[in-house]
Write a structure and sequence with these properties.
By secondary structure, the protein is mainly alpha-helical. The chain is about 55% helix and about 5% strand. Helix 1 packs parallel to helix 3, helix 5 packs across helix 7 and helix 6 crosses helix 7.
Length: about 210
């Protein structure tokens, strides 16, 4: 398998953490969505990451769909990041809000970096969406007494929470009051200590205006 994209993307990173957790071998092409767009286009006309090229040449896009394929590939016994039943619903709920906050973080980064004069209405909207989603996620994390969200082991929701939080902290450090989200800060520290997170890690290397 070939994973395309840099580890400063929370979406690429969640796929890499899953591949590593499941002991699935892969090659990594750390291509930039802007600088290496034409290389990515050979596999994915959207020129987006993550793109996961399977051994039969099929290219998968969208991290949630990629994780569903990886869970199915290893099977229920080995898909240790997946959850079922009531935990499965909560897992998807938290993944949805955390990946949505990551989407809005990426939008805000592009607005700040790529546009000569950021559009205030869009900046304010993204900031409010991120801040309020993070408050919802802070409450969800604080309400759970276990080391990770559901038990002693990380889930896909734990991974998405932590990869989103790291992007937000690194890319937009002055934009939010991170002290308002202490449970998310502790959660991030716990996840970042896991070997799979440490191996799939790079400092933020955002887009630049051509
Ligand atoms: N919903 C997608 C989001 C992926 C995404 O936003 N990727 C960004 C990098 S973090 C990207 O490819 N940006 C370039 C573009 O959208 O043109 C997923 O979960 O994989």
């Amino acid at each position: 398998m070939l994973l395309i994209g840099q580890y400063d993307s929370p979406f690429v990173r969640r796929v890499a953490v899953t591949l590593k957790t499941y002991d699935l071998a892969y090659e990594h092409a750390p291509w930039s969505t802007f600088g290496d767009a034409e290389k990515i286009a050979r596999y994915n006309p959207l020129r987006r990451v993550p793109t996961l090229v399977l051994d039969d040449g099929a290219a998968l896009v969208d991290s949630a769909g990629i994780l569903a394929v990886l869970d199915a590939l290893v099977g229920p016994g080995k898909a240790v990041l997946a959850r079922s039943g009531a935990d499965g619903v909560e897992n998807l709920r938290i993944c949805g809000f955390a990946s949505g906050a990551a989407d809005k973080t990426v939008s805000l980064i592009y607005e700040r970096v790529l546009r000569e004069t950021p559009f205030p209405l869009w900046v304010d909207r993204c900031r409010a969406q991120i801040r309020e989603a993070l408050s919802l996620l802070e409450a969800a994390r604080a309400a759970r007494p276990t080391p990770f969200l559901f038990d002693e082991r990380p889930s896909h929701a734990d991974v998405m929470l932590a990869t989103m939080y790291r992007l937000l902290r690194e890319a937009l450090p002055g934009e939010f009051d991170f002290a308002a989200w202490p449970a998310l800060g502790r959660h991030s520290e716990l996840c970042e200590r896991l070997p799979a997170f440490a191996e799939a890690c790079q400092p933020f290397n955002g887009p630049s205006r051509p």
